[in-house]
């Protein structure tokens, strides 16, 4: 079986999908106070990305997020790096113009369009996961070079997901364990 066919057989959703939002995490395991970069990318069929409108939903809400930024060339007119919200980051609007039509060569695919920093809290006493997912409401591509025609790939879009694991620092675990032992001895 050819590698592409094997991959499509192993992941049937990819065979049907025409587009996807991908979440990449530079370091998926953090100690208290450590940071990592989270990047959103778009993957598509056709010529080039036009625009994507998505939210990044984090199981820890807006805590720990900073440095929200769009990545060129997806930082065109009318775009927004989003805003912190109770469920994570809302209203990320990324897009580029194809004007004059066909004026740029096809960009890399997948194409990064948004980046932010997540910093683990300083007071971690038990391990926890920061589950990340996207909720996309617009995902359009330019159909071919030399045209402004776009196509909606939202139906069948594969949403992104990733997890950041936050673990206590080894010294804090030891201090916690010693405190529990001392507390038991006093009883």
Q: How far apart lie the N and C ends?
A: 66 Å
- Which percent band covers the strand fraction? 35-45%
Count of helical stretches: 3
Low-confidence stretches: 1-16
Report the principal-axis shape: elongated
Question: Could you report the average pLDDT, rounded to the nearest whole number?
Answer: 84
Helix content: 10-25%
CATH topology grouping:
Immunoglobulin-like
Radius of gyration equals 21 Å
Please tell me about this protein's structure.
The protein has a single domain, classed as Immunoglobulin-like (Sandwich). The protein contains three helices and eleven strands, in the order ααβββββββββββα. By secondary structure, it is of the alpha+beta class. The longest helix has 17 residues.
């Amino acid at each position: 079986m050819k590698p592409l066919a094997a991959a499509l057989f192993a992941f049937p959703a990819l065979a049907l999908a025409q587009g996807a939002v991908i979440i990449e995490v530079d370091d998926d395991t953090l100690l208290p106070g450590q940071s990592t970069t989270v990047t959103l990318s778009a993957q598509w069929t056709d010529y080039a990305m036009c625009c994507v409108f998505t939210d990044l939903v984090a199981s820890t809400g807006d805590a720990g997020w900073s440095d929200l930024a769009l990545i060129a060339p997806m930082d065109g007119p009318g775009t927004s790096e989003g805003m912190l919200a109770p469920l994570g980051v809302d209203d990320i609007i990324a897009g580029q113009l194809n004007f004059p039509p066909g004026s740029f060569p096809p960009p890399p695919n997948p194409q990064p369009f948004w980046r932010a920093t997540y910093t683990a809290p300083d007071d971690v006493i038990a391990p926890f996961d920061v589950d990340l997912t996207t909720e996309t409401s617009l995902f359009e591509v330019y159909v071919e070079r030399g045209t402004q025609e776009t196509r909606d790939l939202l139906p069948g879009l594969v949403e992104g997901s990733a997890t950041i694991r936050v673990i206590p620092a080894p010294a804090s675990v030891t201090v916690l364990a010693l405190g529990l032992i001392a507390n038991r001895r006093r009883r």
